[in-house]
């Protein structure tokens, strides 16, 4: 693996960071999870193409030498093989689809409207989960974690889960105030992040 390739660091950050544009930033609470997601993307780009921080940390803390030229030296490849890498790509793809589909529906019916004029979106992907974009971001980052499981990423991913869960709960409180019983009924019937096959079959 050739480290110090800063062009690829920049390309990687742009490639996976662009999905933040699919989120609104009207409230301060929405900025922190997006910031952590970007930090996640930056950290993994640095580890993959820039500086192998995890290897340096392991060498310093445990005195274990690991050759930098090993392509899969600090990922899960040795344990999950090439098929596992395809699982990571699949998670990335599903996550991207969820982010785009969620944005398409909610932007058209809610975000693009003036305050008080938007309607509750319950069609499309929102028939199956209440927060498809947040599920999408978590799947994108989980796929990246499968590809490159390093110390900073292992620390940051659980933080990302907590932040998006808290943001989802906060937004649901606002939607309940805005739409009342309509939203309460929707929330009772549609799962938060993971679809329920039993309900839809």
The Rg value, from CA coordinates, equals 19 Å
Query: What general outline do the C-alpha atoms trace?
Result: elongated
> How many extended strands?
0
- Report the portion of residues in β strands: under 5%
Mean pLDDT: 78
User: Per CATH, which architecture?
Assistant: Up-down Bundle
CATH topology description: Four Helix Bundle (Hemerythrin (Met), subunit A)
Number of helices: 8
The overall number of domains is: 1
Task: Give the SSE order as H and E letters.
Answer: HHHHHHHH
Question: What composes the largest sheet?
Answer: none
The CATH class, by name, is Mainly Alpha
Strand pairing plus helix content: what structural class?
A: mainly alpha
Rounded to the nearest angstrom, the distance between the terminal CA atoms is: 46 Å
- Please mark out the parts with pLDDT under 50 across 5 or more consecutive residues, or reply none: 68-74
Helical residue percent?
55-70%
Describe this structure in words.
- Helix 4 runs antiparallel to helix 5.
- The protein is 67% helix and 0% strand.
- The chain has one domain (6-200): Up-down Bundle (Four Helix Bundle (Hemerythrin (Met), subunit A)).
- It contains 8 helices and no strands.
- It is mainly alpha-helical and 201 residues long.
Task: Show the helix and strand layout.
Layout: H1 6-17, H2 31-50, H3 53-62, H4 77-111, H5 132-147, H6 151-179, H7 181-189, H8 197-200
Helix pairs in contact: 1-2, 2-5, 2-6, 4-5, 5-6, 6-7
Notable characteristics:
about 200 residues, mainly alpha, Four Helix Bundle (Hemerythrin (Met), subunit A), elongated
């Amino acid at each position: 693996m050739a480290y110090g390739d800063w062009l690829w660091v920049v390309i990687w950050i742009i490639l996976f960071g662009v999905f933040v544009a699919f989120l609104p930033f009207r409230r301060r609470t929405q900025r922190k999870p997006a910031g952590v997601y970007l930090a996640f993307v930056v950290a993994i780009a640095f580890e993959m193409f820039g500086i192998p921080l995890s290897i340096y940390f392991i060498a310093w803390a445990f005195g274990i030498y690991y050759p930098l030229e090993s392509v899969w030296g600090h990922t899960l490849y040795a344990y999950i093989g090439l098929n596992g890498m395809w699982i990571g790509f699949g998670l990335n793809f599903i996550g991207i689809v969820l982010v785009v589909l969620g944005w398409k529906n909610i932007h058209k019916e809610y975000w693009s409207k003036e305050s008080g004029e938007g309607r509750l979106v319950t069609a499309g992907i929102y028939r199956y989960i209440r927060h498809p974009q947040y599920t999408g971001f978590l799947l994108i980052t989980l796929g990246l974690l499968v590809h490159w499981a390093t110390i900073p990423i292992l620390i940051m991913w659980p933080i990302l889960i907590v932040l998006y869960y808290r943001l989802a709960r906060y937004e649901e409180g606002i939607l309940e105030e805005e739409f009342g019983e309509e939203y309460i009924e929707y929330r009772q019937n549609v799962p938060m992040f993971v679809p329920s096959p039993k309900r839809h079959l």
